[in-house]
Specification:
alpha+beta; 5-stranded antiparallel beta sheet; two-stranded antiparallel sheet; 4 helices; 7 strands; 22% strand
């Protein structure tokens, strides 16, 4: 019985020695999945840069052909909208509109934070920020998204 245990141990020992060698051999082989992933990332990055360059040239064409307004310009409201008393009120109003929260919007109207402005209303651009403009018109003044104001 003792000799059987010893022989079993001896036969198991070479198997243990082969396993680390096999793992070492696997490390030497290139990881094709890793190489393929890196190649895919490089391709996506290249096409992304190409796409961004095309967008830059198209956006500059759009910017020059559109009728964006600046401080001191006379413009027109191009859609029925609301003018907010402050820029913060405009953010809150837009959140209510996007969430379709009519109760919140009605509360702002009743509190005087927001007032409706009809399409076609002539406005003076008092101040221009990145995405908003402060306008004055015959019914009052307030902040609106700059996309809602254009030169006619």
């Amino acid at each position: 019985m003792l000799s059987e245990d010893v022989s079993t141990e001896l036969t198991q020992t070479p198997e243990l020695n082969e396993t680390p060698g096999t793992a070492h051999e696997q490390e030497k082989k290139p990881n094709t999945l890793l190489i393929g992933s890196v190649g895919l990332i490089v391709l996506v990055f290249f096409f992304g840069l190409t796409f961004c360059d095309n967008n830059k040239s198209n956006s500059s064409i759009t910017a020059t052909s559109s009728s964006s307004v600046k401080t001191g310009d006379r413009g027109y409201i191009n859609t029925d909208t609301y003018a907010a008393l402050t820029n913060g009120d405009l953010d809150l109003m837009l959140n209510y509109i996007n969430a379709r929260n009519n109760n919140g919007l009605n509360e702002m109207i009743q509190a005087g934070q927001v007032s409706p402005v009809s399409q076609g209303t002539a406005v003076n651009i008092v101040e221009r920020k990145l995405s908003t403009v402060k306008v004055s018109y015959s019914g009052g003044s307030g902040w609106v998204p700059h996309e809602f104001v254009s030169k006619k």
